[in-house]
Amino acid sequence: MLTAFNSSAQQQRFTISGYVKDAQSGESLIGISIGKPGTTVGTVTNEYGFYSLTLPAGTHDIQFSYIGYTAQKFTIDLTSNKRHDVKLTQADRQLNEVVITSRQQEKNINTLSTSVNKLDISEIKKLPTLMGEVDVIRTIQTLPGVNTVGEGAASFNVRGGNGDENLILLDEAPVYNSTHMLGFFSVFNPDAVKNINLIKGGFPAEFGGRTASVLDIRMKDGNNQKFGLTGGIGNIFSRLAVEGPLQKDKSSFIVAARRSYMDVLMKPFLKGDMKDTKLYFYDLTAKVNFNLNKNNNLFVSTYFGRDVFGFGNEANMNWGNNTVSVRWNHIFNSRLFLNLTTYYTKYDYSLEFKTDPEEPVKQAFKWTSNIINYGVKPAFTYYLNASNTLHFGVQGTYYTFKPGTGTSREDEHETRITVKDKNAVEAALYLDHELKIGDKFGIQYGVRYSGFQFRGKGTAYYYADTVPGIRKRLTGTKDFDAGQTIADYYNLEPRLSARYALNSTSAVKVAYSRSAQYMHQLSNTASPTPVDIWTPVSNNVKPQVTDQVTAGYFYSAPGDKFEVSAEVFYKSMQNQLDYIDDADLDLNQFIEADLLSAKGRAYGLELYAKKDIGNTTGWVSYTLSRSERKTPGLSLNEWFINRYDRTHNVNVVVSHEFTKRLSLSGNWVFASGTPATFADARLEFQDWDIPYNTTEKRNNYRLKPFHRLDLSVTYKGKQLKRWKGEWVFSLYNVYARRNAYTVYFRQNPDNPDQKEAVRLSILGSIIPGITYNFKF
């Protein structure tokens, strides 16, 4: 009888769950490893610091560990489900010295995810950047598979995808323009950022709506123990963040602001027509959170930012993002967790030109445009046991697109051109299952079912194809009332990732994902600009659908001294947007007549090595890839290279700590030149001189290779109990490389009969920077 009872007890399983937070600040910690030492049994905390681990009844040693924190081990007697919240203490070595404790569960060889790069803000702060300012977007461009068309580009490209194919989330609210100052700085204030996660392939089923990558950025919650100030004063902009408790241990806030002052610094040197030049940006990031009780937490985050650029009253443009997200975390029980997110996002811009007041004829033009989203996302996580986890939920977004209203005025006569608003609804439901089978094999499989409805009120235009590559012919129109469906699309998006451990230090992984995208950014330039148009799919434009296959080998040296990975990928892309030659994208009601449907493909090899421990840390990445398109009617109907293709891309990031107060960081990048289409002949007839391309091939040339070296030195002052400060001295483009952004042709000023090629470089000299960072 006693034997039978013992056998029954051994089969019982109970769950230990709770939150893991920073002991000093109360911040929730993402990706904490929780497990039984000496085994692979364990889990990690989710994006809100919550964990759940189911184990057999009995006594267990459980260890909590994380980068830069002192590991804690507890002995737990599991005779029932238990709630166990943990506070980890930061290790003695701070910011510029990364301390690694055992982190068995989150190592690349043990996770199911492929093509994922996670960066802590302390890692990002070590890199040299433009003007000494920490920048999230520039940092991810040093990772394998990520590139950009050049300095000043307002977007980044991942594995052959266009810039609009990246889903950028700030506390789960989408951001449509991620950069300030035409691409030189990102909109994410480093003083308010906690964690960054870049996913390039093998997407979990919860992510959709974009086809190239997911950049998931999480803001700090704010210190719920004490008040503090963090900031920096630089030669381009300054920043300040204030955080503290609203009620100790129960609620907190953080407010972070930045403002550039290049316009102020330039003013004494600008004369004549340039004296009223405006060039600045500002942003405000804020968040509050409330611990309502042990099972409920509420978070409210907001971001507002704007760029202003202009020359007096003659030419002005400004653009900016505004996001608000409200999230509620609820623990139903030790195994079921809910995060309910609602959000609002707006991106808008305006462009204005005026003639000089002294001109006899007064002329003016103004163009405004925006896109607005309202969204809701209930997401559930059910922890069946230590080897099985379910993720499921639904998502819905309502879109309003305002492509543009243009007003032109000549003296007292005014003309208004309005591209009609567009409305749409996107919805999805998803389910995926994480399954671990023994110590060696794991699989995550799931499916996402998405739908999109392009709705009235509005007019639908119908076109007939003419000669491929030529503007389509309008055949008819139809008016739709508000709420009526003009066109709808539905897609089943399967996802699969699998891992097999070869031994305790290495593993192989494979992944497949299909993803659909229901909106496009219309741009016929190499890099999207702030005034490019976002538009939904319609009765004429189909959604992009991308299938991606990835396989990789991952190695982690004993003791976590360094890690190495090698991945190969292949992407097949359907319904990519292309444009007829000389497409008219500005305030064109019939813009869809200029759009073409193209196929795309991208494939490549990515190598990555990273070292976290010791006085010298950093990483090296190399990407060998190709991105191509095939558009009926263009480039002889053959495959041609994408404008943002980079065959070779190398990044070397190194940081060396000489003492606890002095460190040196460097970043060297090399990339193949971007493709371009140039004329290879010219036709001379009477007074005409017409260049033309005899091959009719797009992107028939490639610019010279891009390379640049950046350096920075960080000197930490005397670290007082309450005040901590450091100086950052940086040199951007150390050897003054004039990298070509593009090449254009003109008549030689000294000999008008000759044509000459001119290299346009955004930056061509050494740019020094100095910043003083402080924390109080």
From TrEMBL:
<dbReference type="InterPro" id="IPR036942">
    <property type="entry name" value="Beta-barrel_TonB_sf"/>
</dbReference>
<dbReference type="InterPro" id="IPR008969">
    <property type="entry name" value="CarboxyPept-like_regulatory"/>
</dbReference>
<dbReference type="InterPro" id="IPR037066">
    <property type="entry name" value="Plug_dom_sf"/>
</dbReference>
<comment type="similarity">
    <text>Belongs to the TonB-dependent receptor family.</text>
</comment>
<dbReference type="InterPro" id="IPR000531">
    <property type="entry name" value="Beta-barrel_TonB"/>
</dbReference>
<dbReference type="Pfam" id="PF13715">
    <property type="entry name" value="CarbopepD_reg_2"/>
</dbReference>
<dbReference type="InterPro" id="IPR039426">
    <property type="entry name" value="TonB-dep_rcpt-like"/>
</dbReference>
<keyword id="KW-0812">Transmembrane</keyword>
<keyword id="KW-0675">Receptor</keyword>
<keyword id="KW-0732">Signal</keyword>
<keyword id="KW-0798">TonB box</keyword>
<keyword id="KW-0813">Transport</keyword>
<dbReference type="InterPro" id="IPR012910">
    <property type="entry name" value="Plug_dom"/>
</dbReference>
<dbReference type="Pfam" id="PF07715">
    <property type="entry name" value="Plug"/>
</dbReference>
<keyword id="KW-0998">Cell outer membrane</keyword>
<dbReference type="Pfam" id="PF00593">
    <property type="entry name" value="TonB_dep_Rec_b-barrel"/>
</dbReference>
<protein>
    <submittedName>
        <fullName>TonB-dependent receptor</fullName>
    </submittedName>
</protein>
<keyword id="KW-0472">Membrane</keyword>
<feature type="domain" description="TonB-dependent receptor-like beta-barrel">
    <location>
        <begin position="286"/>
        <end position="733"/>
    </location>
</feature>
<keyword id="KW-1134">Transmembrane beta strand</keyword>
<feature type="domain" description="TonB-dependent receptor plug">
    <location>
        <begin position="132"/>
        <end position="212"/>
    </location>
</feature>
